[in-house]
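Contributing new complexes? Match this layout with magnesium ion.
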Amino acid sequence: MVVKSQADNLPGMELLAVVIIAFWAMLPAYIPNNAAVLAGGGRPIDGGRTLGGSRLLGDGKTWRGTLVGWLAGALVALALNVLQPEASSLFSVDVPTFPLAVALALPLGAMLGDIGASFLKRRSGRERGAPFPGLDQLDFVVGSLLLALVVDLVFSLSWFFETFTLPVLAVVFVLTPILHVSTNAIAYALGLKDEPW
Ligand code: CTP
Ligand code: MG
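Output block (do not edit by hand):
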């Protein structure tokens, strides 16, 4: 006999719970790009170097933007840890806490993913700021998840797969492009960003 779970009776509630967990778990990876937009400027990471006639990364990837983005995301993860008990009872969902290594890996991975995408954009002849649909929306997701997975394995945290279950991962890959497109459009409308993507 198949026992019907509460979740089967309330599919909408179950989805909402997954969305809340996905958003909470990825917030430390969502912050860095936006913080970098606000903090960017100064010395580019590639120091102006070129490869095959194009910039290695370009002026859009700076040391200041990267460091501030990383730090901002890590601080958000630590703040979420403090808020976790209240948030869990408020949403009636057990939202995750972030081990320190994960709190550092999620935002750093997001920045590295974005930098990797920049490298690919320059190799494919796209100038700084040119859109690369798909890559732009998911580079930081892949970067943050990969680095979080690596530290999870290295430090035997058993955190990654407990948090990023398949439904949560699926929601992350659907939710993130939507959030990315809308926050960038807002940043552009506010004059904070040069392009709406
Ligand atoms: N930024 C930064 N350092 C980073 C990422 C972003 O300083 N590691 C800042 C830059 O001022 C950049 C802005 O945030 O112009 C927007 O970021 P993004 O859209 O990722 O860069 P692009 O200017 O579009 O450059 P690219 O085409 O290389 O992605
Ligand atoms: Mg851009």
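Reviewers usually confirm one structural detail per submission. For this one: The longest strand covers residues 50-51.
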